[in-house]
């Protein structure tokens, strides 16, 4: 672990856990993420964004430098289903775009508790349908996401598999794949988790789920059935409470015949990739994802 990540994590953990222990409404989390996106997350040279209104809602097109790749990235932002916008995650995604020569389509989806699940899943599906209507074949689309967005990306994969649509590949960074939070790491990693204390996970689930059951496969892809799986990459931190979501999700996809790569990183914060430019592990994880994307052309 780099000294910079150790120092930043040490400063981050007490502040974030105190806030997460006390917050009762999503508005403070949304404000904090917006402020971080504006003042903390690092802008990528050559980054360009374009807002789009389409039948599914609102989205950002993001690229950084020349677009050389005919494939497109459908990227779903995280935020615990209750926070986040394309704008909060655009800088991290722009780094991946710069490394791959791709452009990314980042849909805004409805947030809970105002719009409980499966509203977010419905909006992400509309984003996929828009790209298809614009002429992108399934094999030209790579789906990605982080945290809640990683779970949404995997939920979309399950739905597409039932229809015989196979994207080029799917990656998930620190995915939230089980809203029942039944993984052993929820408790065993509570002391090392940087952001979200284990005692609050079911409060989050209650806000996100509305009337849905936590193990409904539509919102918890760990319990979904997968078929016709493309290659999948999952990255997670060994110290986060969602580590077992990543491990178990990888096994479910392997059992379904998928070629799955699971990368686990020591002592990193949840979705550490968003700290690109602050410590080297963030850039290294994005670079590993870029190499994986490049390898898809050979499969």
TrEMBL record:
Q: Which InterPro entries match?
A: AB_hydrolase_3 (IPR013094), AB_hydrolase_fold (IPR029058), GDXG_lipolytic_enzyme (IPR050300)
One Pfam family name from the record? Abhydrolase_3
Citing just one GO molecular function, the answer is: hydrolase activity
Per UniProt, the keywords (alphabetical) are: Hydrolase
- Lineage in the entry? Bacteria, Pseudomonadati, Pseudomonadota, Alphaproteobacteria, Rhodobacterales
Occurrences of domain Alpha/beta hydrolase fold-3 (ranges):
73-273
Where would one find the signal peptide in this protein?
none
User: Can you say what this protein is called?
Assistant: Esterase, putative
